[in-house]
Structures are given as structure tokens and as C-alpha cells.
Amino acid sequence: MKSSFGSFVKKESLHILRDKRTMLVVMLIPVMLMILFGFAISTEVNNINIAVVANNRTDGVKDAVERMSQNEYFTFIGYVYPDQIDGILRSNKANAVIVFDDDYERKLSQIANGVPVPPIIQVVVDASNVNTAGMATAYLQNILLEHDSQQSFFDTRMLFNPQMKSAYNFVPGIMGLIFILVCAMMTSVSIVREKEMGTMEVLLVSPVRPVKIICAKMVPYFLISCIVLVLIMALAQYLLGIPMEGGVAGIFALSILYLVLSLSLGLLVSTIASTQIVALLVSAMVMMMPILMLSGMLFPIENLPVFFKVVSNIVPARWYIDAIRKMMIQGESIVAVWKNCAILLGMTVVILGVSLKKFNDKLE
Amino acid sequence: MNYITMRTFIVLFQKEFLQIKRNSFLPKLIVAFPILVMLLMPLIMTMDVKNVNISIVDMDRSSVSRRIMSHIEASDYFTLKQETTEYYFAMESLTKGDVDVIIMIPNDFEQDMMMSVPKRISIVANAVNATKGGIGMQYAIQSIMYSLKELRGERGPINVSDIITVENRYNPTLNYRHYMIPALMIILFILICGFLPALSIVGEKENGTIEQINVTPVSRFVFTLSKLVPYWIIGLFVLTIAMLVARLVYGLAPLDSIGAIYFGAVLFILTISGFSLTIANFSETMQQTMFVMFFFIMVFMLLSGLLTPIDSMPEWAQRFTLILPPRYFVEILRSIYLKGATIAELWVNFAALGLFAVIFNSLAAITYRKRV
Amino acid sequence: MRETVISIKDITKRFGDFTAVNNMSFDVYKGEIFGFLGANGAGKTTAMRMLCGLSYPTSGSGIVAGYDVMNEGERIKRHIGYMSQRFSLYNDLTVWENMRLFAGIYGLSSKETQERSMDLLNELNFTSSKDALVGSLPLGWKQKLSFVIATIHDPEIIFLDEPTGGVDPITRRQFWEMIYKAADKGTTIFVTTHYMDEAEYCSRVSIMVDGVIKALDTPMCLKQQFGVQTIDEVFRILARDAKRGGQ
Question: Is residue B210 within 8 Å of B19, Cβ to Cβ?
Fold first, then answer.
């Protein structure tokens, strides 16, 4: 029977290889995603547009404006009138408007002498984007109060990611997403497609054991995913400069486990779905959304409400992404993330078991 | 439109609706999905940094260090997770992910401070998540400065609010959900009106029914239109559900005219469905369509300012976003919902969407080939 | 002189290096049942798809229902009916909804649709299944329904691509009765098949081997010409050195 298994694998591989468009898409998309997101996605706040309202543009005001425009985070877009504030904020021309008191300089010196006065600077910030607003306010306060000197008190260090690149945070997440996409969705759809077309029946009446047929379907996708894995790792290291001090071997080992898990998930979906559309939608709903939302890829798990924190435990990508982050960026070895590995292994065994059983049940 | 074209359109349109209605899954999806997404997702999609876990390595064990600690503990932003005298332990917790920022107060800090040449306090932030690390660091510095100034009993500007007032306009409570809810509505459009039209065309290709249509004299424009209009109606229905949930559950209602929102939505749904149909025209199988659509949906969701601000992107990426239609609708919806902007103020965005709608729908009709 | 409704000259269709249909020429006359015979892969469906305006000929010229095959495909479609080899009505619509759809596409008003559909359903004794989902019908019924829908707008020519594939002998018989009835009314029928016995029912048959028409005449003349008893034998002689498809 060994040779028949081989011939099935060959048939499946030919199917995929002949479909050049799909091949291209499967290879190209992960690469594009890595490049786009590695470079483009970022949550840093580094370009805040500032407008200023000041009836008396005295030296003190000009000095404060000068300090702001020299700061790398801010761009000074010009002076405006008080009645324009709402308009420029609404049309997104500025993120914040600073209003100086008419008597700014005199009052500032009063403060220096300890005379209490009402506030002399008003910062109107567009708080529709909460993070930008928070950062802008914090930085502005430091600049306006000339608190730059305070740095001398501190010795600060941004650990693991000194240049504060968002890519470091996103790349493991993208890996978690891509493998599910390639393995789980592609296999489930291709199996259901054979069901729909009726060709599955033909295969099932052959003397080869059904499990072998299924495995043969999965092998080519597994191989494609391995190629994609190598591509992604190469891009991460050479293009994005992610350190991977935790050992490339460990990352590969864990990724391969995750690939098998994704394939099993795909098989499970294919036993449930009867049409391709349903397979697609189920994949999208039960795989894509949880990965985007609950895996910590974009939204930190500690921010989640308790209920979702609990739910996130059953999302495989959560454990994978966490472990990959630790290995790629924090330089941990695979031993340090043994818990994640164990959980993923357990999940793989369970999902594979259930889907094989369901698959066999269907046949009887 | 002459009589026959009109009649053709009506029967095709009827057919689309019947097919959607008869599907075992789609009607449920169209109703339940928006409600679920609007109810649950705002709870999940928070990227605001509100809970920074701190470990303090107190080697000084003085009144100053206790003061710093109590101020940290009192802050809303921080949770004091660990208090130790060994840097090693703190580092271990940070690597495990239990704490985000370590504050280390050196030996004899209090004593040195009296003589005004203290050793530096070191602050170490885990910057794997750059935003969290950055904001955590800033807040930690502010909090410690506050404690130190208080201790020194300095006159002058102790409290920032004595000099500067901050008005958080449009979102005074700094509620991250209000920022995400318009984005969620757009995600709904992209998923529903982006996927379904493509799947319906490719489904007809795979079932062979499209051939029976192709052999009739129906024009490709009418056929494309009959595929568009149902999703247009569904999209507006989804928008209405989403707006109701936002209103009833999160108390978020648009500050300016609802009409402007519907107008923007009409243009956006047309754009995204037209795009979807174009993709379908180039695909033979569901698998292909799905994969290509997923690619674009990922790009749309992650690069058009839905989840991360466009302003934070590098220059070239910002320029690239100009060709992404959702970018314009994100700005429209957020500005109208949160800031009460008017169509006049956002005319560039509306014009861009209108242009995309024309381009993609013409493409969809032109690339639809009745004959090979 | 009989009126010509299809006139094809030197039509060729290539897919890359593969020539599916090679320099084909023939005429079809009004009201006849024109049989198009050939093994699987001989090029029957490709040829028929070109005539229906579903596919562009690589070269050659032709007139179908008075319009040019090269440039007036959409006009041709208004005057023909087509029944594909693969069942291609909407399974998730009812019998009546499918009829209304296709009648509407050809511009029949709702009143005309109503009358025409009822007539056709009565003829088939189908009235009771009017509201049944097409997907739930047995194959034979589906085929008959496909035929009826292909004729719903009273076309001048009906193209049938292996209409009786996979149906039982009784249904096949009924099907051919429907074809005769349509032909009697003056409709031209263009039918492909690989059942050689069906060829005997046709006014004229053409036999296609490897993309080329090898013989074209009435069944009677063909049998005489080759000196055999059945069309099947004619076919066997012609297809002896076929390179593609077939058994």
C-alpha cells in the first residue's frame, strides 16, 4: 500500500502545482504581508500636527513654539484664530491646538515667583484617537514645562527592542495568522471541494484506507507551508533584522508543530462543512476572527475582559504567538516556553483525534 | 433603460434575493454577525495602555523609595505587581511577561539626594510591544518626578494642571471604544460586502449556472448590477443594525447628520462590492477567490487606519494608503461619528470614494466576460 | 430551396497548441434536427459553444440566425436557446422561479411569462411540481425542465449539448418526442450526442473525429455510403484512427 499512498500524494501535488495562480498566491501573499506589516504597521505616535492660538505672539510664546517644532514628534502647522479650532481639528489638519493666554509672559513670571494664577496654557487635543491624544498630551506637557532636564534623574532602557519597532510585536502574530490561512483554510476547502464535486466518493471506494487519502491531501499543503515558513524566517531575519537569539531550530520545531495543528483544524472544518462556502465562512469565523482578536496579535491579552481572557486560552494562535515572540525577540530558548509547546501539542492531539474520528464516522 | 433591460434587471434581482433567502447560512449571518461583532468586539479591541504592571527593585529601602512606591500604587495606570530587592527576580518576571516595567531605586538614594547628587534611578521597560513600553516609560518618569518634587518641597510648578489645562475634545472620557466602533462598522462592510458578492459569482461559475446566463442576451452591466444591488441593500441593513447597537449599548450616536453617514456608506459599499466582483471575474475556483480576497482584506484592515493610525506609518506607506478605499471611509465615519464633521469638510474623502466606486464597478462590468 | 439558419465556413478554434476544432464548414436548414456526433473530446461542445456566442472562433466565419458569429454574438443569443451538457439551472430556485427568471431575461412581460410557463408545464404534466425546488427533482425531470426553459422565448434554433446523458430509456424517448414536437413547429434543433441510436432520429447527422467533420448526410445516405446497417457502424469506421478521446 505504500506505493499507493505515494501515488495519492503525487496526484494531490500535481493538482496544486498545476494551479499556478493558486500557487503564486499562496507563496506571494505571506511575503507581501510580511513586508507590508513589518515595515508599515506601527502604533508609535511620531507625527503630531500642532496649531497655536496666540493673540500676542511675544518672545515667550515664540520660544515655546520653537521648542515644540524642534521636537521630533511634533510638526508646527501655523497660527490660527480661536474660532478655527474646531474646524481644523474636525478636518484632521491638526491633532492638537495650543492656546496661550494673552498675558502669557507676565503670568509665567508670576508663577516662577510663587504667585498662584489660573492656568495660562490650554491644550485642546483631538481625543478621538485615544492613544495619540495621550501621547501628545504627555509630550506637550514635558516640552511646555521645560522638563527635559528631568531625564538626568533616570537611566532608561527599552529592553529587547531599543528602536521601538512595532514590527517586532507584529511579525510573530503574522506568522500565527498566515499558517492558519494556508494550512487550515486551503485544506478544508480542497477537501470539501472534492466532496462537492463527488470525486471524493471515487477515491473512497478505492482500496486505500480513507485516512491515507486524507493524509495524502495534507502532505502537499504541509510542504508548501514549510516553504512559506522558510521564506518568512528569512525575511524576518534579513529584511526586518529580528534577532532570533532563541535559536532558529526551536522556532522551526514549534512552527512545524503549529503547522500540523493548523492542518488538523482544516480537516476538522472539512468534516463539518458540506459546501465550500460554508467551509470558507466557518474558517473565517472560527479561525480568522479569533486570531485577529483574541491571540494577542494586535490587542494585548491583558486588556481583555475576564470572559475573553478565559476564551483566549483555547485559541491555539495565542500560545504559538506568545512562544514565538519570546523566542524571536526576547531570546528565550525553546525550553523556556515548554508550557506553550505542551499546550500546543495537547491541542494538536485532541483536534487530530476528533477530526479523524469524525471523518471515519461519516464513512460508516 | 428600456423596458426589456428593466424587466431583465428585476428578474435577476429577484433571483439573487431568493438565493440569499434560501441559503441555510447567509440570512443568519447577515443578521447575527453584525450584532455579535458590535456587541463583543468593542470589549476586545482595546489598544489603549491602561494597565502597566510594575516591579520595583528597592535597594534603598528609605522613606523616599516608599513614597515613590505608594505614588505608583495609587496611580490608575500602574499595578504594583512585585516588590523585591533583587534585580534578578524582577528581570525574571519581566521576561515571563508578568511585569512590563522595572523601576530600580539604587542604594543610598535618599542619602545622596540630600546632598543633591543622587545615583540615577533605572527604569527598564519591555519594549516588545513598543506602544506599551513607550507609554509605560513616560508615565513612570512622570510619576517619579511628581514624588520627588513633592519631597523636595519645591515651590513653583509642582502640579502640571496649575499651568496647563487639557481639553480632550470629542472624546472627553478617553474611551477607546468610541474610537473603535466606527472602525468595526467598516470591518463589517468589508467582510460582508467584500466576500459575499465574490463568492456568489464564483459559486455560479463552479455550478455552471453562469453558462446558462451567458448564453442569454443579458448585458454584462445589467448582470453586474443585479449582483451589486442586493449587497448594497444588505450593507445598509447591516449599517442600521450596527448603528442601533452602538447607540443602545455603547451610547454612541453620530454628532452630525445620519444622512452623511448613509451617503458615505452607499459609496463605500459600492466600491467594496465592485472590487469583490472584479476579483471574482479573475478567479476560477472558490479557493483562489478566497485567498486573494483574504489578502486584500488583510491589507484593508491593517493598513487603512482602522486599527493603527496612518500617521504612525512611514512616509512611503502613508502614500500607499492613498490607493486604499477604506482609508477614506475610516476618516469619514470617525470624523462624523466622533467630531460631527460635515460633508463639506470631508468632501475630498467623499470624492475619492465616489471615484473608486466608479472605477471598481466599471472594472467589474468590463472584466466580466460572457465569451471566451 | 430550403432556408439556411446556420452557415459555418472554415471555423477553427485553438487553445494554445491544441486545435479543438479544425476548419469546420457546414449549413443547417430551418426546421431540421441536426445531429452532431462524436466521441468525447472530439470537439462537439467547443464547436457548439462558438455557435452560441459563448466562445470566440480563432478564425473562420459564420452566420447563425442571421447574425455574424464573430461580431454579433449578443444578437445571436436573442434568437437561440441553449441546454448545457451539465445541468445548469438554479438548484436553489423553484421550477416556476427558474422559468420566470429566464422568461424575464428574454424580455417576456409577467403576463406573457405566466401564460407561457403554464402552457409548458401543462404539456409536461409538471403543474403540480411548480413550486418544488429544482435541486430536489430527479435527473430526468431536470433535463426536461432544462429543455423547456431553453425554449421559453420561442427561439429559432435550439442547441442541445448531450441532452440525454445519464437518463433512463423512457425519459430519453419522451425527450425525443419533445424535440420532434418543437421541430414540427419550425424550430431548428442542433443536438450533440454520443448515443448512436439517437442519430437515427435526426434529419441529418455530421460525424466529428479529432476536431474535423468526417461525414455529413442523412442517416440513410450515410449507411448506404458505407454499406452498413447502423450509424454506429459508420461511426466505428470513421473513428478507427481517432487520436483523442473516445474508447
Answer: no
| Domain contains C246 | no
Can you say whether residue C39 is alpha, beta or left, with left for phi > 0 and alpha for psi between -120 and 50 degrees? beta
Domain count, chain C: 1
A-chain residues within 8 Å CB-CB of B283? 21
> Domain check: are A203 and A270 in the same one?
yes
pLDDT over 90 percentage in chain C? 50
Residue where a domain terminates, one of A153, A173, A205: A153
Whether residue A316 is found in the same domain as residue A332: yes
Q: Look at chain A and report how many structural domains it folds into.
A: 2
Q: Which residues of B touch C111 (CB under 8 A)?
A: none
User: Tens of pLDDT along A20-50?
Assistant: 767 777 778 788 878 777 777 776 667 788 9
In this predicted structure, what is the pLDDT of residue C10? 93
Cβ of C56 under 8 Å from any chain B Cβ?
A: yes
Enumerate the residues of chain B whose CB falls inside 8 A of the CB of residue C50.
none
Q: Of residues B305 and A207, which shows the higher confidence score?
A: B305
- Shortest Cα–Cα distance, C233 to chain B (Å): 34
DSSP B20: H
What gap in Å lies between CA C175 and CA C191, rounded to an integer? 12
Ordered by where they begin, the domains of chain B are 3-45+174-367 (no CATH), 52-162 (3.40.1710.10)
The answer to whether residues A330 and B124 touch, using CB atoms and an 8 Å cutoff, is no
Whether chain B has a CB inside 8 Å of the CB on A157: the answer is yes
Same domain, A120 and A141: yes
Q: Do B312 and A46 touch (CB under 8 A)?
A: yes
Place of cell 495565542: A318
Rg of chain A in Å (alpha carbons): 28
- Whether residues B311 and A47 touch (CB distance < 8 A) is answered with yes
Same domain, A180 and A248: yes
Task: Give A28's contacts (C-beta < 8 A, 6+ positions apart).
Answer: none
* A21 and A105, same domain (yes or no): no
Distances (CA, A) of C47 to B289, B297, B321, C132, C151: 30, 41, 48, 34, 21
A–C contact (≥3 CB pairs within 8 Å)?
Answer: no
Q: What is the DSSP letter of C189?
A: E
* Residue closest to B181 by CA, chosen among B328, B338, B292: B338
- Contact call for A168 and B144, based on CB within 8 A: no
User: Which of A131, A166, A270, A299 is the best substitution to test chain B (most B C-beta atoms within 10 A)?
Assistant: A131
- For C96, residues 6+ apart whose C-beta sits below 8 A from its C-beta are C117, C130, C131
**In whole angstroms, what is the distance from residue A180 CA to residue B235 CA?**
28
When CB atoms are compared, the residue of A43, A112, A284 closest to B308 is A43
Q: Is residue C170 part of a domain?
A: yes
Q: Tell me if A45 and B175 make a contact (CB, 8 A cut-off).
A: no
Residues of A in contact with B133 (CB under 8 A): 158-159, 161, 164
* Nearest chain C Cα distance for residue B205, angstroms: 10
Residues of chain B positioned with their CB less than 8 A from the CB of A176: none
The average confidence (pLDDT) of chain B is 85
HSE-up of B166 (CA within 13 Å, CB side)? 21
Is A155's CB within 8 Å of B121's CB? yes
Neighbours, chain C (3 or more CB pairs < 8 A): B
Quick one: which H or E segment has residue A317? helix A316-328
Whole-prediction pTM value? 0.80
pLDDT for A3? 63
CATH number of the domain residue C199 falls in:
3.40.50.300
Q: Could you give the ipTM of this predicted complex?
A: 0.87
Reference A137, options A100, A96, A101; nearest CA is: A96
Kindly report the length of chain A.
364
